[in-house]
Structures are given as structure tokens and as C-alpha cells.
Queue: 2 jobs
Job 1
Amino acid sequence: MAGDSVQFGSPVPVWYIGTSDYGAEHPLEGRKYARVVIIGGGGTGLSTAYHLKKLEPSLDIIVLEAEEIGNGATGRSTGFYLEGFEGGITPALARLKREYPNDPKRVKEVGAQLLRFTLDTLSDLDALIMAHNGTENEAKGSLQLATTPHFARLLEDEVLAYEGLEIDVGQKILRGNAVQSALPYSPHPLISSNGEYLLALHEDSGFGYNPIKALRFLKEEVKKLGVSIYEHTKVTKSPSEQSGKVVVKTTGGEVIADYFISATDGYTSGIIGGPLITPYKEFVFATEPLPLLFSGQNQLVWVDNGTVYFRQMANGRIVFGGGHKDNLDEALLHNGEMQSFNLENNPIQQEYIQKYFRQVFPQYRDARITHSWAGIMGAARNEGFPAVIRMVSPCGLVVGGYSGQGLALSHGLPKIAAQIAMGRQDFPNELVNFFRPN
Ligand SMILES: Cc1cc2nc3c(=O)[nH]c(=O)nc-3n(C[C@H](O)[C@H](O)[C@H](O)COP(=O)(O)OP(=O)(O)OC[C@H]3O[C@@H](n4cnc5c(N)ncnc54)[C@H](O)[C@@H]3O)c2cc1C
């Protein structure tokens, strides 16, 4: 933490620190046969394989990953494991009110089903993590700090919505002095016009964890169940159908299957499934470990001013995500493909981030930014909600489109996808329909 200027480091996500050496699976060679082929080895792809195997243990499944497990949004995320959808549960309730205009009872019932579905998924992920390393998550529960009146209103609406659904996750609104005394850190005017946080929302639910580690645990589980995974195997075009079978061509070889599931989120919106999922670019960067600002908080403390969100991890590193995306587009895209986000050779982006960081954390003006990276995520054309979509073809599904809140959903939606693929449906119709665009 010395020197005149912020230094910019590796384009690799900070999550790789402290993770063990990774043994990637061999690429696909030649022709292989399977009942189901899954394209994409992020949270969605691995979870779909997991849930399919739980439904039918004898099913042979192949997962194809273009790079390595964790290369996509899952491994590049900020590691906030939260329930609900982007923007909370309030937008989902607004949609349900439009769908069932004269039936408040049904709105409440389906709203509660949706919220519980995402909470159950969080519990499943928590259990997976605990089963693999037996240690506590980095942070349990969350404290969300509002820095604008608009955001404060959204948080208040969320509390009312949870109350209406009668779901208690220990939500508590803190105001004025209660917020300030809960936090030793006085915010800079940039994040609060009067030098105070306007309001904070505490929840017992949600946790923070290293998403690369969680994904590798999931990979271990999936392998134990007998799924074949091929890494460094990129699918090169949309699966085609020949004589009732699906043919998936890759850089290495091909897979012939009865059914395919596309789990590439925003990456292949052009080649698989058409424009069903819109890609978005998001960047993140992390500092060297710094003295804790929110000390004594064993919860996920995060601040969102509508554009940039950030949190300080237990190891002291401050992780920033979001940003003025227009500024960053050029740095992120190359020949239409998403690139790692290397700030080192990019003075315009360096200046922007440096200025922003110093405004928010003047006490850390000389901090080193050790990691900067980016990823693509997808938003579904399903009024912005995640989607499980049956393709025109009877033997394929696309799953994805979680926007910025996909770590839990990418484990939950695959449960529905697995059931659809196996011709089953254990969830209520209304819940499943919510995720099926018209
Ligand atoms: C920077 C960033 C920060 C985020 N922060 C959070 C957060 O804190 N909390 C949260 O809940 N959500 C967050 N999200 C969103 C969340 O990460 C995603 O919604 C979720 O991880 C999507 O999972 P996925 O498996 O569908 O997609 P991905 O993890 O992107 O997996 C798709 C996989 O498909 C592979 N692939 C692509 N094309 C091909 C091909 N042609 N052939 C074979 N494989 C292919 C990719 O390499 C990739 O591994 C963030 C996203 C980003 C980008």
C-alpha cells in the first residue's frame, strides 16, 4: 500500500488465490454418445448434470466446457450468494399482479413459492460448501447499505413484500444513528449526499463465498455421480438434429445425444437458441488486503449506489463491481468475444477506476488494485427474469438469463430444467410457467 499511484494487476479473478492447483479434464476427441449433452460448465451446466443424475442415476451425461470450469460468469462473479431475483422480489410480485389482476391470494401464493424456491437453493449451496470444507462461509447474512433515496425506497419495498408473503429472513431496516453506530466507516459524499448512509437493510439470509471453490466442489460431486466432463472443448455451432438424434460439433470432436441443454448464459446467445438471452458485460476489481472498515461484521456488507457495488471481504480486500460500462466496452470486447479485463495497458480505464476508488475510499488512495477482471452474463427475454426455455426442437432446452443475481439461481433453475428434460414436473405449474417465456 505504497507509491503515488494505484497499480493494476492480474486479469485473473481474485478467487484463484488460495485455491489448489486445478486439474482440468481432457478435451473431447473423436465421437462420443450420451443420452444428454450439456453445453457450458458454469453453475448452470454442472447443476443441471447434478439434478439430472439425482432424478435418474443411470443417465449418461456429457458436459462440454469451452475453457475451464469457472471461466464464465460463475467464476468471475463477486461471490454474493443471495435469494430472490435482481432487484429483489418486488419486481416479481409486480409481474404476478399483472398476470393475476383479480387474484391477490394467488399472487401471494406464487410469490411465496418463488421466494422459497430461491431460499431453498441457497440452503442447498450452503450445504454443498459445508460438506466439502467443513468451514464457515466467509460471511453469513447481509447488510445492504442504501446510498440514494431511490435505493432506500427499494429496500423498504422489499421489507414490505417479505412481510406480505409472510417469509421471515430476519429482515430489519436500520435508519439514521442506528446505521452509523452499526458501522465504523463514514461514507464519502459520493456514496451519500449528506455524509450518512440513508438506510440499511439487514437479513439473516445470503452469504459470501469464493465462487471458484464452490464450483469446484460441485464439479467433484458431479464427477462422483458419473458425469463425463470435457474441458477446453468449445461447441462451434448450434446443435443439429439427424435421424432423431442431436449432433453437437466441437473444436475436438462431436457428441451424439438424445437431448441437449444449453447452459452458456450470455455467451452463445447468437449461436444457440437465437436471441433468447441478451449478453451483458460486467467488470470487477479487487485491492490488496486493507485494514477492515466494517470490522466486527460477520456478514456480507455491501453498498450499492445503483452503478457500482462493492464490499470488503474478511481478508481486507475491497471488491468493486459494475461501473460505467460504456467506458469499458472497448477494453472488454475483441472481435465480438469477451476478453479478460486487463487494466494494465489501459490508461483510460485506469484513470476512471482510480478516480472513483479514491473518491469512495480516500483513506486508501494509494491502495494497490491487484486484480481486475470481467465476464459476460445474460438477461433473459422473459421480462428480465431467468428462463428455462423449451426450444422449437423437441430435444433441446436453454437455461439461463439470471442477470446479476445468478449464483443461487444457476443452481435452482436447473432443477426445473432437469425435470422438463425427463418429462417430469414436481413444482407447481405457476412456478414453472414463471420461468417459461410466452
Ligand atoms: C462480473 C460479474 C459479477 C457477478 N456477481 C454476481 C454475484 O455476486 N452474485 C450473483 O448471484 N451473481 C453474480 N453474477 C451473475 C452470475 O455470475 C451469473 O448469473 C451465473 O454465474 C451464470 O451461471 P451460468 O452457469 O449460467 O453461466 P457461466 O458461469 O457464464 O457459464 C457458462 C459457461 O459456458 C461456457 N461456454 C460458452 N460458450 C461455450 C461454447 N461454445 N461451448 C462450450 N462452452 C461454452 C463458458 O466458458 C462458461 O464457463 C455476476 C456476473 C458477472 C459477470
Job 2
Amino acid sequence: MQKILGTASARAVSGREAMLKRHDRLLQSLSNSNPRLAHSSSTALPLEENNDALIPKMPQFDYTPPPYTGPPASEILKKRLRYLSPSFFHLYTHPKILGTASARAVSGREAMLKRHDRLLQSLSNSNPRLAHSSSTALPLEENNDALIPKMPQFDYTPPPYTGPPASEILKKRLRYLSPSFFHLYTHPLNLVDGKMQYLFDENGRRYLDAFGGIATVCCGHCHPDVVEAIVNQTNRLQHSTILYLNAAVAEFAEALASKMPGDLKVVFFTNSGTEANELALMMARLYSGSHDIVSIRNGYHGNAAATMGATAQCNYKFNVVQTGIHHALNPDQYRGVFGSDGSKYAKDVEDVIAYGTCGRVGGFIAEAIQGVGGILELAAGYLPSVYSSIRKAGGLCIADEVQSGFGRTGSHFWGFEAHGVVPDIVTMAKGIGNGLPLGAVVTTPEIAKVLTYRCYFNTFGGNPVSTAGGLAVLRVLEKEKLQENAFAVGSYLKERLTSLKEKHEIIGDVRGRGLMLGIELVTDRELKTPAKAETVHIMEQMKEMGVLIGKGGFHGNVFRITPPLCFTKEDAGMSPPPPPPPPPPPS
Ligand SMILES: Cc1ncc(COP(=O)(O)O)c(C=O)c1O
């Protein structure tokens, strides 16, 4: 048995080495302008020229793609070999660039939609779960106009909405979508348009978006540059597969790698934050040869097998097998047992390794600012010390930048940079695509090699549309200096919120950086009793005023302010107009 296993693993290793050598040879040949890549001077004549009679004729098709002006295959291949996973293989000796595809009508789909429509028509109107749709409370505007802050001027009117009303959508949602879905607000919003930091409901009412689709919209809703990149790419080619070359994915990988410190230069694309973290955890386990992972309490990393294990809040955990994860004390500066002393919390990680594992670990994963956990910034000094303990125990350090990346924290492009550490693996999603389903894992070439042991494959990860959009997002962030804006506007807003804390007992804590801010509400400042009901009430009132914010934290008593990074000082400064001057004394 041992012999069989030994032979199998030897084969895997030698296969991997052979593949890496092949890649090295390819790269070498590229830099030497190997004639194999310049297909015009190929030694083997293409089939067409050898024997024309043998070539099947293509059916007639009336479409000529626009001229291709992107980089040539050899250049894309060079970037792909340098910045994308070494586990990727491609079809053909001379891989093809697929630039354009043309759509065909699918009549079967139309028939299916008609069937759905007929079904929907037969839906009964009486669903008791929809009973709360007739409001009893007057909207705030009608109650007291003087209290309503004025929205900053914004020169945009959305087109008229012609879709179904909120009540109808809700009915379908309740009937056809997961019963686990919840919605914000007693009367859930039907948002139909978005423009930069504003959202519009079905009646054209404008809302200031201070939540950003959960820290996801970074450039602004429907930013024209991002939309243009998506539309252009969709018009040319929506999907091929990573088995062919495409410029969008290689160029985005290069651009992302340029934002990374040290040797973090190899990118794997995924479709979500969960997928990115799953992959990162698997790579850490493969690289280290250890299964045990340390994560911290109150963290959120996703909802698949390994990531649900690493997530440490019971609200997000189901009763399914989640092995090999150890949850260390949270370096929570507001509620944590050691206050802001990062070194004391870091000692707990040493203890977890010493008493909870065999002394070796696969890795450590943490957010620099816990988002779902209520915008909690890890205590200073914690990460450098923990990274050192984890590395001593043979593990890799993973920075989960799903919420805190892409300039959101203002002071830095990545959240981990504020702690003076360089991770071994960085994961990202949300802001990376301004709303596109896109995630990524960035690591070193050496760690990336672990995926060459077997085939690692992700059908949509790194698809042309998402990566073209992602590249446009990076360019907008730079062109519009959105990280700098997050710093300036975020600092101003935090200052204002902190001054509110002096006036209102209910505000227990104001925290965060840039445009990732949290306000924790408590009914008793000493006991830090979570003000859950009050949080829900204020959120409802703010919505009536036209301001959308998020909420989170273990107890659901923390406002999360994570707007698009184009949020302005005028948006941040929205406050009720001053009370009217007292009437003049009677003369
Ligand atoms: C820090 C963090 N990591 C991972 C995830 C999971 O990302 P996704 O929902 O895209 O799977 C989230 C989602 O909120 C997150 O906040």
C-alpha cells in the first residue's frame, strides 16, 4: 500500500516538475522570440497550405468581427505565464485568442419564459406573508418636514420605471426564492436605478447609498467607464474559457499584481469572496502539509465548507462538518478582554497553536477590519505578532481583503497595509468588480505551484467580461483618486459621527477607517448593552429620510457605513436644517 502511495505521489511531483519546466521553456522561448510562437514562420506548414482538398468548408455565416487592436497571442501568453496560475494549461501548441462571438436566437428559452409567465399569472393574490404591505405609520416627510435633511444637488433623472411594483416582486420572491432570504425595512425597497452614490426606487425617489451593496460598489453605481468596458467586452466575446488566450484576463492579472507588495504576483480569479477564501485555505493546507487553520472570533469568510469553518459567528454557521479550524480571541478594541492591547490577543494565538494543535498549522486567516462583524479594526500590533507565530508553526498568513480592499480604508489600498504586514496570500472580491461577480486570490509564484499537482479549474473565474470590468474599476480608482477621496470624506464623516457621540448616550462607539465606518449603539454605555431595537428603528427612519445604511455586528446593533468611494463631503454632511429663528419679541 505504502509503495502504491509512494509511487503515486512521486508521479504527481514529477508531473508537476515537468509541467513547470514546460512553462519555463515556453517563457524562455517567448523572450527569445521562439519561431514556434510566431506562427507565420512555423516549421510545420498549417493544414490549409498542406492539402487544401482535405479541409472541411465552414458553413456560410454573415458576420465580420471588428478589427482586433489588442495585444498579440505571444504577449498575452507571456502575461498569463507570469501573472496567472501556473496550473493553467491551454489548448493547442499555438493557443488562440478568441476575441468575438455572435449570439444566436434560442427559441427554446422564449418558450420557457412563456411557460413561466403563465404560471405566474395563476398565482393567487392572497399571501398572508405579504400582509404588512399597507403602512400605518406616515412616512417621516409628511410628519415633520423641518427635520428632513436636504439631499445634495445631483443632476440625473432616471428613466421611467415600467417593471412590476414592489408588492408583486415580493410575492414572487416569497414564492420562488429561498425562504432564508430576509430584507431590510418593513416596506422593502424596490431599487431600480443607480447612479454613482445614489439609488432610485420604482417611483424615482432618490436615496443616498451609504451601504454600497455591502461594501461592493466602489467606483459608484453604473460608473460609465466600467459600464463601457463591460458592454464592449460583452459585444465582442462574453465567454470562452481559460483554455484559450484572452487579453482581458492577462492584463487585469498584471494590473492587480502591480498593486501588491513583495512577491505577491500570481493571480487566480474566482466568482466570489467565498470561492477566493476556499481556494486560499486549500492552498495554505497544501503548501504547509497541515490541516489546522487559525481564524479569529467574530470574523466572516464565506459560506462554503472551509470558509464557514473559518467564520466565527454562530449566526452564519450551519450544523455541518467544519474540521480543523481553531478560533482565537478577537482583538476587539471595544468589547475585547484586553482592550486595545494587540500583543495580549496575539499571545492567545500562540496558546491555540500550543494547546489546540500538534504544534504545526496550515495557516491563519483574518480581515484587517471585520466587516460583517461590525466594522471592527484589529488592535494595533496584533497582526505582526500573529504572522510571526503562524510562520514559526509552518503556516501561511491569509489576508481577507474582501471588504477592506481597493482603497476603501482610505489610508491604504489594502487593509493589511495599515498593520505593517505582508501576507502570503491575499483574497479579494466585492469592490474588485464594482458589483460584477468577481473574486481573486493573489499569492507568490512558489505557493501558487501547489495547484499544479492536480487540475484546478473554474469555469467562470477570470471570464472576459468580469476581468474587463475589473480592469476598468482599477483605472477609475486611480483616475478619480477614490482612495484619497475615501480618506478625506471618511475622516470628515468620522469626526462628525464622533461629535454626535458626545451628544447622544446611545452611541457607544464610532470606529473604522476611510469609508468603512461603524457606529455601535448601546442602551447602557457602562454595560455596553446592545441597542438592537433602537438600531432597527433608526435605520427605518433614515430610510424615510432618504439615506440607506447597513447594519451588522454579532448583536445587529452596529451601523455599517460603506458607501461608494465617490461619496462627497456634502453627502457626509447631510444633516437636518437648523431650527427656524425664534419669532421676534412683540413690540
Ligand atoms: C470579509 C469577507 N470575506 C468573504 C466574504 C464572502 O464573500 P461572498 O459573499 O462574495 O462569497 C464576505 C462577504 O460578505 C466578507 O465580508
